[in-house]
Amino acid sequence: MTDNEEREIEKIEAFYKGVLSPEEKQAFELQIANDSEFEERVIEYLQVMHGIKTVGEQQFLDKLQSWEEDMTAGGKTESNWRRIASIAAMILVVIIPIGYIAYNYLHLASSDKLYANYFTPYEDVISERGSNDYANAIDAYNLENYEKAISLFNSYLKANPNNMGARCYLGISQMASGKFEEAKLNLLEVSSDSSDLFKEVANWYLCLTYLKTKNNDALEEQLNNITSNPNHMFFNQADELQKQLNE
Amino acid sequence: MQLIKSDKSSTNVLQSIREGDEKLLRALYESNRMRFIKWFEKHHQISKNEAVELYQKAFTTFYLNMKDGKIEKLNSSIPTYLFGIGKNLVKEIFREKKRSLPLEDVNDSKATDYEYQEQLNQSHNKTMVEEILRRLGDPCKSLLIMYYFKNFSMESIAQNLGYKNEGVVKKKKCLCLKKIREEFHELKKAVQ
């Protein structure tokens, strides 16, 4: 390959990536207009570059599909992967956000430490925004103003006692404010509603409430409840916590 | 649960994934999957398979935006970002469903013919490039995908594929591209 050919490819590539200066771009387009063979090569190189990118995207989708198959296939592969994934998920869920937890894991001495490691308020990513009381309560919750959130959720729930999402967030706000007995009652109510999306969220936060209040029997039962369902939203966290407690 | 809370940790995760940390990418995929799928199943009345497909599209969009440098730093956490993409995608899907024409009207649509032809051409080009890449195999295939799809730097490619330095990678990349372009040209001529 000659130096000229190499330079030509680099110029086409810079055009493809949109990094030519206005002057360079103008000169490039002029060359295309005056040289039909160059124009043909440019078109083909651009098609090839775009094609490579598309092949890469397809490979990425195939990879996601193979992960899906691993996760739903069952058997040894799944359990191995689950172990790897749970470790990796723990790195994401716990170690990275809090930073110093790895050290603590080696020296787990108390429920309080474990609780501190695991408890972060469930992030509200799902509530539709509006201007009603619920939205105001969620706003306070997202701003970590838990006392205000508790008050707003309570007043919203007086009129809408069956909204399990609001009740779940109320329970978590109460946990964040150290009101564990009240939190437990609300989370138990959500957890016992078999039809609600927040049931699984409540399962996990109940575990943390029992952990904090040292209610070991209830904690064990709740952890077993989660780990018996591999599709549970909090399977990885519960599995890991269970192992920590058994060490 | 808040997966990745601070800007700093989100930025670190994005950086690691950009540098090709597959285990972290998979952990991210798995840890957000169930919550995403359940929520979209419940709130948008879609089937589990549709929700899985939606999640894969949202995750792919997240990955593409990140590696193309469209996300340098997240203002929210990664799960929030994924849900945001999912919400936009699901709106698009419903819009598409509403817009879809009855079969008997399709032949009257000239714009559809043109778009269809464009899609066919792009799909045909992709198939040809895919076939040439498959024939050439590695290192060309890995090198070009790392460069054009994953947006790896020359330095990173040199490290990953064991080349002596960036200059060697650059030269090799040009050689591979030239070879593919020539074969692409021949294939195009053959089918015309």
What does the model show?
The longest helix of chain A has 38 residues, at 36-73. Chain A is an all-alpha fold. In chain A, helix 3 (36-73) packs across helix 4 (75-98), helix 9 packs antiparallel against helix 10 and helix 11 (199-212) packs antiparallel against helix 12. Chain A has helices spanning 3-16, 22-34, 36-73, 75-98, 101-106, 111-118, 133-142, 146-159, 164-176, 180-191, 199-212, 216-227, 235-246. Chain A is elongated. Chain B is mostly helical. Helices cover 79% and strands 0% of the residues of chain B. In chain B, helix 2 packs across helix 4 (78-99). The longest helix of chain B has 27 residues, at 110-136. Chain B is flat. The termini of chain B are far apart. The chains are: A mainly alpha (247), B mainly alpha (192). At the A-B interface, helix 1, helix 3, helix 4 and helix 13 of A face helix 1, helix 2, helix 3, helix 4 and helix 6 of B.
